């Protein structure tokens, strides 16, 4: 970590991003699928130049996201036959009538979440010759968290009734199904795809494209990438559809850290340290999912410390709890069995801080906002963006 830059900052590593990109590109090459970056996970457009050569475009969950993808992710030539043109997909849980024309001005495809939204806006999409899709809900999923489970009971995410879907087939050319969340099991993915085929097979056979969403953790080192590619290729040939994938986390997994400085240490039954960032404000996803941040480095030393496994730690009274500086009592990055006790001034980099972090950051407690720092492919360091009091003030009135 560059020591001269004031903390806190998010540090993005372009080489690590490109390593993920190469895996995605290989999967696409072997399977024929097209990959779109899910902007809701990661939208730090300062690194899009190194990502876009490997991906086919972006997908979105709002007007702002579809516009950002259109404006920042490579070539958006109006010429649909332009080989290098990136695709910009639009999706939202619910569009409002006053934004739909602007959404369509950026979109190459639009996917509606419900049949009522489809009926409300298909005319406007048709007038602009924009292909239309519908989100399907297969009522099964691979997600270990109920809050992130699109197939949770009474889910609003997509249509499930095959008769109703069959009745609108003339209005759509494709569907989107997103029902995985960090699923690292090929077998589980394949089984749930088989379930989708059982449920919707005759619908799929009448379409031109099927997006299978994100949440497939195929960048794990031991993931059977070739098997996944074959499964996707067979699927695409069986139904004669173009398959899309929408990787968010897989695009940037392991490619970012949040670099902080220890401001204070205390002792209360265990060693305590307070850093100059906040889990609630800067890595909110971990708080929501009740997870802890891995440590990627302490001072100059690159290490890989996972949060202490209480079952395995012999003397937990020597553990260190690292807290954020907001006043939330549970603003905790994690509890760790560290090689040395932390000192004021120590720099701690928390790992895997690229996805679902910068897109969720907020000004809770007025805590200073981490800068965005990029380690470029050539090794140079850019302080891409800094935030100050004026940004905080402007966000409130
Ligand atoms: C969240 C989401 C994604 C990206 O999911 P990851 O788990 O980050 O890969 C893709 N598509 C849709 C529709 C989503 O909601």
From TrEMBL:
Q: Which domain of life is it from?
A: Bacteria
Q: Which InterPro entries match?
A: Ala_racemase/Decarboxylase_C, De-COase2_C, Nsp_de-COase, PLP-binding_barrel
Does this UniProt record's set of keywords contain RNA-binding?
no
Residue ranges annotated for the Orn/DAP/Arg decarboxylase 2 C-terminal domain, each copy included: 240-353
Subcellular location(s) of the protein: Cytoplasm
EC number from the UniProt entry: 4.1.1.96
Cofactor or coenzyme needed: pyridoxal 5'-phosphate
Subunit: Homodimer.
Q: Which PANTHER family match?
A: CARBOXYNORSPERMIDINE_CARBOXYSPERMIDINE DECARBOXYLASE, DIAMINOPIMELATE DECARBOXYLASE
Q: What does this protein do?
A: Catalyzes the decarboxylation of carboxynorspermidine and carboxyspermidine.
Q: Which family does it belong to?
A: Belongs to the Orn/Lys/Arg decarboxylase class-II family. NspC subfamily.
Please identify the protein, giving its name as recorded. Carboxynorspermidine/carboxyspermidine decarboxylase
Identify the coding gene: nspC
